[in-house]
Amino acid sequence: MSIHTTASGSSSSQPAAKGTSLHTISCTGNYFPAKRAEGSIILFRMEGSLADRYLNFAALASSERRGEDYDFRVVNRDSDVAIIAPHGGFIEPGTTQIAEAIAGHSYSFYSFEGLRTGRPHGDLHITSHRFDEPQGVGLVCGCRSAVAIHGRADAADPEQVWMGGRNAKLGARVAKALGDAGFVTVGASNGLSAQDRANICNRGTQGAGVQLELPRSLRNRLIADAELLDRFSRAVRVALEAEPDGELELHS
């Protein structure tokens, strides 16, 4: 589902998110314009129905309390690839645990987490091409690439992992490894394809990463079944370990 807001930040159908910036800062200090369609910014949503409350981390941090409303964890293992859950905790439940399992003891790990259960999805969700929490951005910018774990609503598809991100070759390798492990993947479309250069998964030194959108039912199964979670996380690691240094093929 997509929510359209006007360039001034107001919405034609939903309350405007807090904050006024219409751009996302890159690792090098350059600004990328936000996604636009017919003069509007598009905020794409994975779960829930309300627009994001905050446009950026500064706006969120000015109203929410770290340690009570939100927190984040950073583990820098000096790996080429970072495994991240930018909408972890209770924002998109299960994504923190899945990302942490994939990271294991080998890959750098980051999770931004909502700490209060029952809050609307949009309360602490900063859409990925605006995600600018400094610790998370700093970790990703220091890596060659990133794999971002996200959650989506089941809708009519409670099984498939939707694959996105600008690194087509690595994404294909992850999809194959997951398929070999018994999971089903499909290429994401529309707002979940993560092709924006400012998307947090694309902010490593290669400028291209991978995004996995997991339906709620699959996330629940993975969290409830340690063996299944281990099979899923091992498959992703197999794909990462098989990637030659510097190999890159972008989506056209």
Fold and architecture overview:
The chain is α/β, with parallel strands linked by helices. The protein has a single domain, classed as 3-Layer(aba) Sandwich (Aminopeptidase), CATH 3.40.630. Helix content is 25%, strand content 24%. It contains six helices and twelve strands. The chain has helices spanning 57-63, 95-103, 134-141, 168-180, 216-224, 226-241; strands spanning 2-5, 23-25, 31-33, 36-37, 40-44, 70-75, 81-89, 108-114, 145-152, 161-164, 185-187, 210-215. It has a seven-stranded mixed sheet, sandwiched between helices. It has a three-stranded antiparallel sheet with strand order 1-5-4, with no helix packed on it. It has a two-stranded antiparallel sheet with strand order 2-3. Helix 2 (95-103) packs across helix 6 (226-241) and helix 5 packs across helix 6 (226-241). The longest helix is centred in the last third of the chain and has 16 residues, at 226-241. It is globular and about 45 Å long. Residues 1-16, 20-26 and 28-50 have low confidence and may be disordered.
